[in-house]
Fold these 4 entries.
Entry 1:
Amino acid sequence: MMEIHKIVESLGLEVKAGSGVLHGRVEGGYVSDLLSDVIANSKKGDLWLTLQVHKNIVAVATLKELAGIVIIGGKTPAEDTVKKAEEEGIVLLTSPLPAFEIAGQLYELGIHGRN
Amino acid sequence: MLRGIRADLHIHTCLSPCGELEMTPQSIVRVCQEKKVDMIAVCDHNSAENVKSVQKAAEGTGLKVLAGMEITTAEEVHLLAIFGNEAQVTRLQTIVYEHLLPGENDEDLFGVQVVANEQDEVEAIVTKLLIGGTTLSLEEAVEKIHEIGGLAVPSHIDRESFSLVAQLGMIPEDLPVDALEVSALADVEDVKHQIPGADRFPLITSSDAHRLDEIGRVTTTFNMADTTLEEIKKALKRIDGRSILHAGESPC
């Protein structure tokens, strides 16, 4: 378990929304670009890595009480996605790295996937 | 006078890499007549290069052919764009081609992409990677379709692959689409209850035919005056007595 701001610092992630709630705890990680799969299989407190930028990612993170979202691969979240994340208090992060790299770095920090 | 008009608004041709080569303009028109389908929309993946030839093949037969396309959005959501005339879908095609992900079709992996004429002769082979996606977001694609005057209808929302609900988890708030398409595999009433928010939209069914024997396996029967896009728009909005009479397997 780790506070999200420590992950932001270690991985050099950019904070797009939720800068006021970076004390939240990350309990695990999940990688998927199918939002229906994230609804079905992610767990509360997961940090979610995805390439989707649609505003529905915020709805899914809210619904599943995820710790935050990392948009990977240098993709830019849609404007209404950022706005919605601010409204909902969801931490929205970006990285130029691909999901595999981010997941690997998280694993080295002790953040694991959970069954 | 209003009457029941059977429409199958999602039919692929031999241009779609996954469409069988038997899906030629003349064969499609013949099967539609056999199955008593009154109107169709030709909706190939990210291209509309066979729309005109199917329209020409249907001339004089009474079958109405609307000009469509099935766009793959950046989210990998399949979205039908349906227009009244070919010039409109060609305008959309220009935009879609500008936003296609790069790559060439591999015929061994995905299938041949044949542009046919109305005599079912091969006119050209499209080498673009039509099976891949585009960089158009769902909202951008819907906006472009509406600017050009068409209907935007997310495809097979009940399916687990390439559907609005699978890709985006739920129907986005405020998504200004004109209807939702239910696949041949599901029942419209079930979908209405199973997918939250689906009941806010008109639900249509269409075959998504990739083979001749799939044409018309499900259709939507509209109560309207003519086989035009304008009439369908009215039926979806339930204006002037127009409506959807039946969506699903043919009652006949």
Entry 2:
Amino acid sequence: MDSQFQIEVESLAAALDQLDYFGVLKIPQTATPPEIKAAYYRESRAYHPDRFAAYPDEAFRELVGRIYRRVNEAYTVLRDDKKRAKYVQDVTGPERAQKLRFTEAGEAQVKEEQKRKLEEQLGMTPNGRKFYAAALIELEAERWEGAQRALKSALMYEPSNGRFKEALAQVEKELEKNRNKGDQFRIK
Amino acid sequence: MSDDIAVGIDLGTSYSAVAAVAEAGGSPQVLPNEWGERTHASCVSFLDDGSVLVGNNAKKNIITNAENTIYSAKRLIGRFYFSDEVKKAQAVMPYRIVEGPNNSVRLQVKEKVLAVPEVSALVLKEMKAIAETALGREVRKAVVTCPAYFNDNQRQATKDAGRIAGLDVLRIINEPTAAALAYGFGKDISQKICVYDLGGGTFDVSILEIGKDVFEVLSTAGDTYLGGDDFDDRIMTWLADDFLAKYGLDLRQNKFCLQMLKEAGERAKIEVGRDGVAEILVPGICQSPEGEVIDLRQKLVQDQFNRMVMDLVQRTFKVCDEALQSARLTAGDVDAVILVGGPTRLPIVRNSVRHYFQREPMTGIDPDEVVSLGAAIQAHALLNTQAAEYGQASYLLDVTPLSLRVGTVGGFTEKIIDKNTPIPIEKSKTFTTSRDGQDRVKIRVYQGESNRADACELLGEFEFTGFRIGYRGEVQIQVTFEIDSNGIVNVSATDVETGQKTSTTINLSSGLSEDDIQTAMIHNADIELARGGRAA
């Protein structure tokens, strides 16, 4: 064990909480998945705790352990495309300092985001979804009254669903247009 | 440092083996016992003189000294008394399985009550003795293997067993990972490999990527309720049903007959795998009510055997599917398939594996010895600080097989660490108090893939005290969950505001306390290992 490596470990362990995951793996933010894996292997060769298992200095082993746990954490997040995207957003944003570690909140947010997207598309209650699906069929066939009825029913179950409201507004616009046309026809 | 030695021990459900790297830079060797046997039945027989017989000799006593002979203890290690596996064992095992504190499992032999790790410790003690005789020196350090799919309770219990046997357990490593290490060590290859490990009582699959000296486990999956014993069971059931139809006697009613039946089943399985046909003959297996002695006579052919066990073999491929999916690979991406465990010698298993992967499994690897060889390599590496310098380094990047969860309200759980996450790893979660003046926070930690607590394995209840007391929601406690290189979970907590570490106590754990282990160690050291004659 040379003393230079010891100094390296000590300074890296001390700086760990100021580094983002790209810094931990010593790669640029643009790294490709194979580069991430190569970096992970490189850091594993350097800081794998097994290398130092027989090293008598326990405090030093603990430092290596801390670094290596963070290496694993970094790899776990960066190898996952969804988590990586969220993480990059976090560390390039204004709250960078608080978000250097991918937290449970971040994870929940990724999940929440996916769930919300799905729900927005389809509705949050079984009945809401049912009526919204019916409305889409009516819309497809350009039966505006039917679509309006279905959307109003869907909104009874989910009064605050933005997508439903948007769709209803559009349908009502169409209806308005048609009514105007109709009126004009009658006047003529 | 260099005068120290550490051995690798494959602690199997049915058979165990011990190996070592005897000199720096040398290759690992399986250490035989004084009769040249290289694998040893994981069987412990308590003799009348107070000594204990372990290994292939003890196996004979399953029939002659059934109540005092314990085998397949690994099936029970780290389990709760109420688990299905324990209930099943109670029905078929001739020895007595009783309930201990905190729903733990105890084994009763004569008037002695032993915890399962104490029995495994006796197997380890025998392995240690074999190694010491073979190497001609004292052995105090070891790497012990366990199935990749073992949970924290089972790993902890395995580690405890090592300590009780007087061994310093340097590491618990996964059996498939050890096999991969033995396969790829020093070969300078870059491959994706699959380890198909069908043991006596467990089945594991691991997918690894080997990049020269780095062994990265991409995913692992398994079934801790599936193994060669289940193949034996099928033959037993067939024999017993047939006997019942012929003579109107149910051999399963008598534990003595059941053991003979089991032995016949195991032998038939091995013969049918080797020769394609098995002649089964157990003379005088039982007596009719009229006092007539009846022999058990049957003939088992390959096709018939294959039909009996086909569904078991199919189950292993469901597990393979799962592992490949987690690794985001298909069967075609795998460069090599390594077979581990005795049952993989069966033609039906080999052929099915070949068919599934569209590739010939690796030959030239002894499925009974490869795990202990890998463990020996790892043991040697952990003792050596300079391994990296002379090109002997290998880095095992293993994963946790199960998701780590905490219990929430209403019997649900929330995931903290995903399965197949590289270890060692740590993750923190902040908890707040829910009552004014609350002075303790309890959290229950689980492992499993269900969000329902009752479908997961409880690891224990952690109670934190000694933090600041305040109004509800005001005190925040940061709980850190760490999974170490052994796959064992550690939980600690700090008060977020003061940074003060809180004290932790563990309740509801089925494991042994420090006191229990100390007592067991003394106990274990007192027990003498009997040296019987050579097994027939």
Entry 3:
Amino acid sequence: MKHQYIARSPMVAARELGGEMVIMSGVDSTLFDLNEVATAIWKAADGATPLSEIVEQKVCAAYDVAPGVAAEDVEGFVRDMARHGILLVSDEPILEGQRTL
Amino acid sequence: MERLEAIRDYGVTIEIGGMPIRLCTDDSAYLSRLQDRFAGFISPSRPRELKLEIDLVLPGRSDSEEQVQVRNHGGRWTIERSDFQAGLDLGSRRGWVRQPAHPYATDSVLRILHSMVLAREGGFLLHSASALRNGRSFFFFGSSGAGKSTILSLAPPDVTLLTDEISYLRKQGDNYVAYGTPFTGELGRAGDNAFAPVAALYHLVQGSENRIEPMAPAEALRELLECVLFFAEDSELMKQIFHSACELVSRVPVQQLVFLPDARVWELIT
């Protein structure tokens, strides 16, 4: 099975405030609030760790959720964030210099 | 050449938020209108002031709904709206404005310039009312109709109006300072040319009693960002404003002020 990699877009600004992650798109100023699980995925999106590993380590290991359900939920979240230009998604590791929309 | 420039320099220096901007025009009648419009914010000419040459043109098509376009071309900014065009080089601190002889256009240019300069320094213009009391300043922000003008109209005599429309917030070291502005809203009265450290920002909500409620930092940030005035299509500056707003929320109390249209609300604001 082919790995997928995710990286935080350089076009966004993010800050954790009062335990809540708030992200603003630098493109259209849209604001996003991430819950605890989404924040863990966001922080783990280093472009080098396969998404399947992130699901395993940050979701399945920390929450009582079946691996199949977790993978499906995370993929949906990643698709959504990628659609808004918040996350970058690739079949290859995403190096620092390659992070453009 | 210096002498020649001095002779040609018919202008007035408007100082808002400690930032002097000299507006120059050959039209003495328009200069006089500017002096009236910005009375209270006129200062002597300063060596490091930003200088704008105003070129008056006949009024053309004007669309009040049209968004202003602010673009950065490698350090040179252009500002365009149907009723005016302007250009500014922040490096040389020189710019120009082409506009009809109406202070509203000059007023808009000033707001935009201040928003751009403040953004680079960790501050911003906020669509909010602000006032000074006991040597400290208070901001009142919220959606349209939340009561920004109302709360100021209920203020006791010891309260100084900074603005009922556009608040000026500047970062100075680790502190925030609010300045009065001549930008008017419903009250139609310019703010006082005064400044004071920021004590609190209140998100206004009308209710059945007067009380102050805490706001979660992320919620405070969201509400605050809704009220930040920023016009430039520049993602780096947008990100900077986001981080500046986060800093502000972390350092200054941002709370919800539930209030009746009743002067007793000022018992909570001291």
Entry 4:
Amino acid sequence: MIRFFRNAFIVLVLLALIGGSIWAQGKIDPSKPIKIVLSAPFTGTGSILGDYIKGGAQLAVDEINSSGGVEGAKFQLIVYDDQANASTAATVVRRALYEDKAVAIFGPNMSAAVIGVHTLAQQAKIPMLVGATSVSFRYDKVKNDYLFRLRADDGVKVAQQVKYIAEVLKAKKPGAIVGSTDYCTSALDVAKQAFEKYGIKFIDIEMMKEGDKDVTAQITKLKNSGIDVLVGLTHEPEAAVVMKQVRQMKLTVPAVGFSAWGVPAFTDLAGDAAIGVISVQGFNPTDPDPAVKKFVDAYKAKWGNEPSDPAQCYYDGIYLLKKAIEMAGSTDSVKIAEALKKVEYTGVQGPMKCDDLHNYTNVCYISQFDGKDWKIISKLQ
Amino acid sequence: MVLNDFLQNIIGGVTVGSTYGLIGLGVVFLWQSINRINFANISSAMLTAYLFYSFYTQLHFNFFFSFITSIAIIAIYGLLLRYLVFEPISRHGGDKLEFVVATLMLCTLWLSVIKVLYGGLPKPFPPVFGESTKFVQIGPISIPSVYFWIFFVVVLLIFALFLFLRKSIIGKMLRATAQNREASLLMGINVNMTTSLAFMLSTTIVGIAGILLAPIYFVSLELGGGSIGVKGFASAVMGGLIDPFGAILGGIAIGLVENFSTLFISSAYKDIISFIILVVVLIWKPRGIFNWTAKGD
Amino acid sequence: MRQILKKIIYSAFLAIMLLLPFFSRSDYDLFVTNKALLNIILASGLVFLTGFAGQISLGQAGFSAIGAYTSALLTTRLGVPIPIAIICSVFLSVIAGLFVAIPSFRLKAFFLSLVTISFGQIIYLLLVNLTDFTGGSRGLFNIPFMKLGKSPFTNTLYYYLFLIITALVVLLMNRIKYSYIGRQMFAINDDEVAAEACAINSKRAKFFAFGLSAGLAGLSGALYAHLFGFLTPDPFSFFESSNFVAMAVVGGLRHLSGGVVGGFLLTWLPELLRLNISGFENYYLIINCVIVLLVIVFLPYGLGAALFKALSRLWGEKQSALTLRNLKNKSNNIERE
């Protein structure tokens, strides 16, 4: 008898919890804030950049809300975890579009997720601003009027990387170590094309897998093929493993890495092995540009640590949205999307304007790590 | 040139493999004691590594304090595991499968907790075993100095365990309980105490393995994830699930297989090959590679 | 009186299920419910395999992957019509299931679980590495949606389709449970040696159990591919396999409703926990795990079993002998002192 009541009680409590949360979600905030949804990876495998992404976005939202909002109305930032996973992103984006009825969506940050869900934004006619960098969803390929990119895409960055190698280092026999995710392999494709313009081909390309801790075999092969520069196209932990073993095996050629190499996530792990490494970066906190410094200081003050790529592009993105809403004069998402195509804004990443590929900026740096900071060698605007 | 690669891979394989063996030991101790598999076995490794990281790098305590405190905490965790998870499940009528699923959930839970507390990006393991970029040159082979430390600690630990299990009274009680619980009870052995001891030993040994693996795998969520965990299970299985030393040998075997499949076949398929070998071993020699005595069930 | 109550509750349940699209507030709700229905199909198969036949499997996502990618590849690369592609993928999954059944003849419990984990991981790693074939982590896109005439299915139409399929699956489970095949399963679960002594061919029974659960998982995967329109290896990882087992356990392993309750609840739970509280996006997974842990620790028979036990007391019916027998604790002397 008691067991019956106990079981019934448990079932009722669970039903109440479920019903309650369904009920709680339908509630509308009476003061009518402007809803924006951020989809970012907070759990899951792979690059868990959610904290940086949210850090940049939340900082912008708080700054805007505390200085008058968008013509009086405040932003409401709703954050969801998409687990760096295209399937979860599909659910989260649907929630943002149909349940929260957001006026704009920021993210997903993972390229595979963007490719899977951007048509939803197009169907719902709600703008989607992403920091994902794959070239596969440039405007000329997908023709989605509601998809915008907030930072330099991989095509631009790899071109810069190759340009530096070919023109400054004057290397003729590049070797590459490449990861196995889409980020790495599409960068390799772009790099091959970019090198061709200089009449250069890769002498040796070695593959590694995410999670590999030993690449001595690959480095041996690279060393034996006589390369004069090592092109690194991997994610951060793999980069650290590669550089440690490059030093161990005394491969002394210069190492030029892709954007995942230019972040603290790599240098912290690699320690001294990262000294001297050159990388293309999407963001450099030591940039003397006053806009960058202001952002870095504000971010540090609020969150306690320095920002890293891609925090800055979501920060800029929120301000871009504000300007677009003001330009459109309404929170109608179709009008906002129209405005986003025309709006101009100077942010942390410099002057931002929507180009033919629906990219807002091509800014990137070539820098060298000196053990403490990344010293900027050149900056492309 | 090929001989050097060979030797290098043997050294790497044995060193890392022995830590897999330690993780397998954690599995064996618990299996022998309560006939259950703890699928959150590997979480102890991750938790201890992060605890050590907190004490040493974040709070700036010295090495010994950090090490001992982390180990102590993870030992207490073993006790909590018994009284908060295992006992309630058996009391409410749950059997092996419920324990499996509960510990699976526990494993995911720890991954999420660590993610919330420390963020998702890997952290560098402090250079307590020598700078990670330092290595020792023996002829044409260069061995990271970390490997020496790892191997040294593993050998020390195995020796200590050997003495404990074979020579000390408590060790003998532990072994007796593992062999035959009812008879041990009849002999007046405090089976309650040995069960708790088994839990604590299980988590502690895996915890030490975690600290040893952290220089290679970084202080990361990888340490508590599935890939190393399965290697731990595989090591235990290779040793037939009953003999601790079989687990160590099994782990070394796995480490060697891993390294050599990277050398001869590509690294992309290394994991697939490890799994295929595991399945083959399970089907072909379920009593362990070296055919220990009857496996329990 | 009690009989009328029973009829009312059942009819209300039926009505809610049939009219759900009109109750739901948005496309998102329907979408998640569709995912839930697919998980119900898979979890029911798992309940059958693990709960009834006693064979543990931590690699169901592997069968689901085979179903999903087969259907996706057949429809995108070869232009096969969707229904035929789905049938082919179920067929392939069943064959895979028969293969995985073979180790179960010699291996029990933990050892079998290792084999199933390996199977699931091998499939996952193949998905990630065979990029030319499966698209790798880049994914496989432009999988055709099911079409009604010219226009693709909306979530509502998918809902009704999945509902019909799920209902058929549950009905099938019911028939099997009370048939002689079902009793063979329970027999080998209880005591395999004794069952063999009663002339039950345990090998054939295991083949059946694995084949059926793999087929259902494959069906779930194939429908998933056409619901989403794209595939990546992520939903077929070990994490998902363990989630599926959690669904089966939380729902209730020994009870028919296990797959339904577990699949539905554990699909909706993470979604419901996506509350609009700042910072919560970090905690929801923790709470998800804790809730599942609590259910397993305190209600190891599962919520479905508890629900039906409560309901049958409500309308004063005795539960069937088979159900009662299943809910009895398999006494295990080893840790009781």
